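Input structure tokens:
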């Protein structure tokens, strides 16, 4: 009979997520994960199956927590443009304040593993599709309210997803707030 877990799964997966986010999958050693999560290797393997399975759990946790919060931020206001602005304002704050100094965990994972791990690629592509759909909905609301024109506004969801991904990569260069605000402002004016 298996022993009961003496740890909170969400807490240890959060620790692993931040370690993978900081260093990437390949550069993160199991020993370091065990130290961060305060688990023995046996507990890690017993609970998660291995480093890759823990990585998948960390991706899922990130999508459930951080990505879902971002999508809610876009979708919450009645004004489509207000939701889009709130999303980018939060992203700029996170990058400028160093909370996203390593960019986005999903973006980094897609760059590192997208070509070699179909499951990772599939999960991240599905999440990007959720982000695209949230932007498309906000743009539709913005168009209906006269906040933007019909062309190219409503069709610009993919452009906004690309902007997000570009900002996430740029975050690794530690850009200043003024640069980030200038980039986003220019893109939103194009709508």
């Amino acid at each position: 009979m298996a022993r009961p877990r003496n740890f909170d799964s969400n807490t240890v997966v959060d620790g692993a997520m931040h370690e993978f986010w900081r260093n990437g999958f390949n550069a993160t050693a199991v020993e370091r994960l065990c130290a961060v999560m305060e688990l023995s290797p046996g507990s890690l393997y017993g609970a998660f199956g291995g480093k890759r399975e823990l990585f998948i759990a960390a991706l899922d946790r990130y999508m459930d927590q951080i990505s879902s919060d971002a999508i809610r931020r876009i979708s919450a206001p009645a004004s489509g443009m207000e939701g889009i602005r709130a999303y980018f304002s939060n992203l700029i704050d996170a990058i400028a304040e160093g909370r996203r100094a390593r960019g986005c965990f999903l973006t980094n994972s897609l760059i590192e593993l997208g070509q070699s791990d179909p499951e990772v690629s599939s999960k991240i592509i599905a999440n990007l599709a959720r982000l695209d759909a949230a932007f498309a909905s906000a743009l539709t609301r913005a168009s209906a309210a006269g906040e933007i024109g019909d062309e190219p506004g409503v069709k610009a969801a993919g452009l906004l997803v690309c902007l997000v991904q570009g900002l996430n990569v740029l975050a690794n260069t530690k850009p200043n707030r003024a640069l980030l605000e200038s980039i986003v402002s220019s893109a939103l004016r194009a709508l």
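Residues 118-144 form the longest helix (27 residues). The CA atoms of residues 2 and 46 lie 9 Å apart.
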